[in-house]
Amino acid sequence: MPEVRELVPRAADPSPGSSYYRRHIFFCLNQREGGQACCAAAGAQQAFDHCKQRVKELGLASPGQVRVNKAGCLDRCAAGPVAVVYPEAVWYSYVDLSDVDEIVESHLRDGRVVERLLTPAHLGR
User: Fold this and answer.
1) What is the DSSP letter of 57?
2) What pTM did the predictor assign?
3) A Pfam family name for this chain (predicted)?
4) Sequence-separated (6 or more) residues with CB below 8 Å from residue 16
């Protein structure tokens, strides 16, 4: 698979409509009732907090770099917990904080998709 840099140009020259951030990761933190599968019940808040901290530690949190945000339901509950990275629209399913570290270091910092963590396309709610 090609590196992300080959797929999406870096927003070095901000023109109208271009992304303010080089990469933007959204973590689903949705909580569902009645014991239904959801990202919140699978530790998504801890993963979000960890990702934010790692991005800061690596010096990626400045304007034009990487933004880490919470999201409501991303409708991929069966694959959860999930996160999606834009502008590439790469979906990840992660299990633990070491998976989050790999996403941060490989994709957010180095521009390489973490193939083993890709969310299967057929998994939705």
Assistant:
1) H
2) 0.83
3) 2Fe-2S_thioredx
4) none
Kindly indicate whether the domain formed by 20-117 is annotated with CATH number 3.40.30.10.
Answer: yes
Residue 69's identity, in one-letter code, is N
Task: With CA atoms as reference, report the closest residue to 65 among 25, 7, 17, 119.
Answer: 25
Look at strands 82-86 and 66-71 and give their pairing: unpaired
Q: Is residue 122 left, alpha or beta, with left meaning phi > 0 and alpha meaning psi from -120 to 50?
A: alpha
| Domain range annotation of the chain | 20-117
Copy the structure tokens of residue 71: 């999201």
pLDDT tens profile 11-35 = 455 555 667 899 999 999 999 888 7
Smallest CA-to-CA distance from 101 within 52, 43, 40 is with 52
Contacts of 85 (CB under 8 A, 6+ apart): 23, 24, 25, 92, 103, 107, 108
